[in-house]
Amino acid sequence: MSEPDQFATPRRLHPASIVLGLPARQLLQVIIFPVIATFAGATPSIQSGIQLFVLYAGVGLVMRTVSYQRRLFSFDGTVVRISSGVFARQHRTIAVERIQQIELRRTALSRAFRCTTVRIETAASASEPEVELRVIAHTDAVALRNAVRSTVTADRVTQPAHEPVLAVPARHLFIAALTGSRLLALPGVVFASFQFIGGQLGAFVEEVEAWLSDPPDLLSGFGDVLSVVAFPLMLAGVVAASAISALLVTFLRDGNFKITRRGDELHVTRGIIASRESLINVNRIQLIELKQNWLRRLLHVTTVRLQSAGGDAEARVLIPLLPLARVHQLIDTVLSDTTTVALIKHPPAARYRSVLRWFRLSLPLVTAIALSDRLPNTWPLVAFLPDTPPVRVGAIMVVVFVAVLLGLASYRLRGHAITNTLVLSQTGAVNRRLLIAPIRKIQTVGVRANLFQRRLKLASLLVRVAGARANVIIHDADANAIDMHAATLTRAAAMPTVNQPT
Fold first, then answer.
1. Which of 147, 344, 384, 448 has its CA 20 to 30 A from that of 86?
2. What Cα–Cα distance (Å) separates residue 233 from each residue in 178, 217, 228, 237?
3. pTM given for the model
4. 265-270 and 275-281: which strand pairing?
């Protein structure tokens, strides 16, 4: 039996999907609702909370079981069909030509049951995939993916072998963990927890201060030393814990990251305990994004995101770290085009706009500092604001000076380029972001200029491609150049031979 014929008859998900297929949002509801109902009562009781949880979970389990019985999927070689719903039935059909990406996800628990979640996305997908089969047997998931793939490509016997594109080594994951936003995840959670238990936090701080001022007899001789090194030790502990948590998350999520290519298909695998396998056609790629924070700019490394149409932008193929020397090679491989072009700098009038924009962003802080003596004491910011006029003036000058520096840095990094096949736009101040979009994927082209831009003979170009948050914007460029770019891109996007369907 061929793989498409294998799924021609409608079938159910794996029985374990009744529990393993429960979305995180519903799982939180099962836990949080009984807890809130218990402690919101006049006489909170743990026993009543447990009873409510058992009742709530029991009803949910019955509904999940009925939903499992009523959810069917099939694939006849050309169309994926999904039927679901208990009281209101829903039927969906997806033609394989419209599929943008297929992804297989396995958690540690689903591995134990030899199950996999299959996510199918189209250009119409928004923040959620068009189809999510949670969960089916892993062998069936692989067979379904291969069946869909075989109908949109040439016969697999004639397909070339898998060619390695890139692999992210452990040292790059190490750098990615210690230079990325995950380093701040643990302090953020700790701070949020402290905000949630504010009263207990205050008592804890008072106990620590009392212990330092009057240490136990065994440590009485080290009291002065403890008062000096306590804060540095606590800070070092937080930094070490943040680094360890960032490393664990990065290696568990992005370990064994590899991209191979077979014909026009990119096969992306990553993850150690929970794994993800994505299959994306290079002709479906709508946008490429390069992001560097200030530290990664110093190290000459970047994060690369390959985005197809549909779905949440964060679910796209995200390469955690890549040296800049390898970026152009990767993009040339994916787009079959060169991106080694010089960016066009924007006119001097754009410098004024950039500085003004950052100054406008600083106005709320400047106002808060200027009026700090009149703000209510309950405002959290008041404790950190100066309380004397000379100090307030100095603080305002520092904020304005930093805003001007950020505006100048933003102007310095800003640039764009338009080739025969690509649109490139670079923005940023402390961090840098470069967007690259193939012209053949352009959906709409727009030009906008407000009153201030028109007076400075500036304009902005908005290029839209398919996908979530898939906009390429060229801010504050020469108005005449923007008009010519818009006309050129509109003609190129309208050409059937250039603008391939998504």
1. 147
2. 20, 21, 9, 6
3. 0.78
4. antiparallel
